[in-house]
Every structure is written in C-alpha cells, then in structure tokens.
Amino acid sequence: MTTSILSPENSALVPEAVEVQPIKSSGYTSYRIKHTLPSRFAFLILCGAIILSALAFGTVHYWAQAVFFLGAVAILTLWLIDSWILGSFRFSRNILQLPLLGMLVLGLVQLLPLRTPGNAGALQTPLTSSLSLDPYSTRLVVIQLTSLLLYFVATLVFLDTPKRLHLLVRTITIFGFFLAIFGLTQSIISPTKVYWIRELGQSTAFGPFINRHHFAGYMELTLALPLGLLFSGAVAKEKRFIYLFVAGLMAVALVMTNSRGGLISLVAEILFLAATMGFRRHHKKKREASVSRPRIKSAATKAGLALALVVALFGGVVLLGGEEALTRIVGSVNTDDPTTGRAHFWSVTVDIIKNHPLIGTGLGAFGVVYTGYDSRNGLYRLEQAHNDYLQLLSDAGIVGAVIGLFFVISLFRIGFSRRDSRDDFRRGVATGALAGCFGVLVHSFFDFTLHTPSNALLFLVLAALATVNGRVEEVQSRQKKRDRGESTATA
C-alpha cells in the first residue's frame, strides 16, 4: 500500500486508483474525482455529526458523547476501508493537526502516576498519584479530544473536491438557519423548556442547547459563512438578499439569547470582515488604474450589505422581543446569579495557575480544583472558569498555552493565504470561516462555548474550511472575466 499526502501548500497527490478527469468549461478548471463508497459514507457521517451533535443538547451528556465517539470510530473505519480499496492511505499534512495531537499527548502525560499522593497544596483532599488532580475528568477530555481530532483529520482528507466544499458549506448554513428558527420559536412559546419537554432549573436554555451562551456561540460559527460569501462578493446579485436574510435571522437568534459575550463576538465578526475585505495579497502584477473604480464600487456594495445586516438585526430583535430584548442585554448584572461573578472566578483561577504553572492541574480538572481555592462558602459548584484562556492555563499550564497559541497563529496564517484564491467561492468560505473562528475566540474571553463538543466540532470544521488546500477550488481566470466584461461594455 502506498501513501498519498494531501499537502497544505500543494494540490493533493491523488492515488492511481482514483479516477481523475480534468474539466474545463467557461474558463474554469477543476477535477472530478470518483469517490469510493466508504468515502461517501464518511463524508455523510461528518455532515450528520455537525447536525446531530447540536441537536443532542450540544453533546454535553454522556450518552451523546458516546454516540459522538462512535461516529468518529466509524469514520476511522471507513477511512481505512477507503485506503484499502484505493491501495493508498491518504492523509493531510495540515499543520493544525499537530496542536490537537499535542494536547492529546499532554492529557495522556497528565494521567501518568508521577505525583506523590498527599501533596495537596491548597486542596484539603488527598490527591491521586496521577499528575492530573481529577484523572476521571482528564480521561473524559482525552476521549473527546480523540473524537475531535478524528473528525478534523477526516474533514481535511475527505473534503477534496469543489462539490464537497459547496455541500458542506450549504449543510452548515441551512442547518444554522433552521436551528435559528427553532431557537426563536422555542424562546417565544416555551422559554424555560428544551424541546418543549425538559424543564431546566439551574440554567437558561435556548434551542436544543442547555446553555444559551453556547447556542450564541454556535450561531457565531454558522452565520459567519454566508457573511463571508457576501463580503467577498461570491454571491450572485439576485441571491444576495437570500443570504442576507439567512445571516440576519441567525444574528437575530444570537442576540435574542441575551448573551453579552455573544453580542460582542457578533460585532467582532462584522468588524473582522470589514477590516479584512480590503486586505488581500497579490502575487501577480499590480492591476492597472482602470480597475480602481470597480474596486470602489465593490467596497461600497459591501459596506451597504453590512449596514443592511445591522438594520435587519436590530429590527428583527425589536420585532420579536420588543425593547426588553435590548434592555436586558445592556442591563445591570444580577448579583444573585452566581454565573455573573466572573471577576471572582478569574481571580481564583489565577491562584490555581500560580500553583500549577507548567502542565496545569489536568484537563477537565478545574471543577474539582476550584473548590479548594474558592474563598466563598462553596454553595455553588463551579465547573468552568468562564474564560477559556485562563482555564487552558489552569488545566494545561504553560505547555498547553503554547500549544493553543501555535494553533491560533497557524490558523490565521494559513487561512489568510487561502484568501488569495482566484476562486470567489473558496475565498468567501475562507474569509467567513476565519471570521467565525475569530468571533468564537473573542467569545472565549467571557464564556466556555468551546467546551461544548458540538461547538468545538463546528469550530474545527471551519478551521479546516479556512485552511484546506487547493483541491476544493474551481479556478477561473480573472483576466478572462475582465476581458469579457470589457467587451460587453464596448458592445
């Protein structure tokens, strides 16, 4: 069996057993790949996992996580069968896989019995012999990381044609649209119950999510793709209103969650798109001055789209939720709500970091460790730090922080290079995917939305969409487009 490498810098090395036919039409050049049946099923499971993981309460329960893991195992099995049929094992050399693998290795190291029991520090309970202060939670996180890594690698491998790129983007966008409708409907008819059945006592649900902030985080990711296509000019003029309506409805659902972090992240996404739409590197000769006028017109169109989105957003919020929907967001913090005491949570987390600076207390161990450092009466048990960056330092130490920083830097470095594509759709997808990741990274300063497996999966899928190589592109010569435009204008 040979090995086929899908390089992030070059097109894929396609195995000989795969039928590849160049297609040239209307100035486009693409390749038709004959996929095996296991490959089709693997891609189908990936699309299904994006949908079902969100519908299953965000996959926060053990039974949902078990199904989530089995889906990843099924994809791995189909991947191996696909490789056996082709006689070649395909894998990607995308550098973003390394940080995920590194975090997985760190979790396994934390499970090693290298600590002397009884050295509890600030904790008043005896410790286990493992480096992790909560080995059970660390094992669970390791399983989750394994599942996410398999889904991410599978996305990079099986997202190998323009057709699949279009299909995956449409799946995320359409599902996000209907999820927004579901969330808005439920918030109006039955705001205290999930699926109109399950009553929650200690959290505020929205849509199928137990935590409204996590629903907001999911909307940040889904609405980024249509926004990216709109801002990049990849949508035909007659379809722009549809894309604007879809993105606007998802934005309205996000605001209706009353998540301050979600609203800040939405604004950050729009600012990111506005700031990056004029920045694009060119490896060819500079365009002539005659092209400057169409550029100005295009920028004005995108600014108009942004303004229309803002108007539609606030108009929809007032229509569906009245003025109270806006006043609740800017209203005062409820001192009786333990989830609003982030300043105290963060100060305690800093104390934990000071005592465990190198490799942290163990992935997922925050809930157990926090109790020993908390200066309050312990009436409320805190499971998360409500700041993913502080919790990363607490759980994984400096080593984990370096791994996370490497992932973020690599994501945007490769993603911005992908925006140089001559394929308008590919460029729009890369721009939107980066905007979605940026929005969630901003949200992570205030909440822990990426600790929800469904959100983490969609975040990684968007990271793959932003960084996957040129196999997914249909390249059309801009010169031909410009020549056709000039000849039409002359006629």
Q: What's the gist of this structure?
A:
The chain is mostly helical. The protein is built from 16 helices and seven strands. Strand 2 and strand 3 form a beta hairpin.
Which features would summarize this protein structure in a list?
62% helix; 491 residues; 16 helices; disordered C terminus; mainly alpha
Question: Can you walk me through this structure?
Answer:
The protein is mainly α. It has helices at 37-55, 62-86, 97-110, 135-158, 162-189, 212-231, 240-256, 260-276, 292-321, 324-330, 342-355, 366-373, 388-418, 424-443, 453-467, 478-490; strands at residues 2-6, 20-25, 28-33, 88-92, 193-194, 198-199, 475-476. It has a three-stranded antiparallel beta sheet. Strands 1-4 form a two-stranded parallel ribbon. The chain is globular. Mean pLDDT is 81; it is low at 7-31, 120-126, 281-293, 328-339 and 477-491.
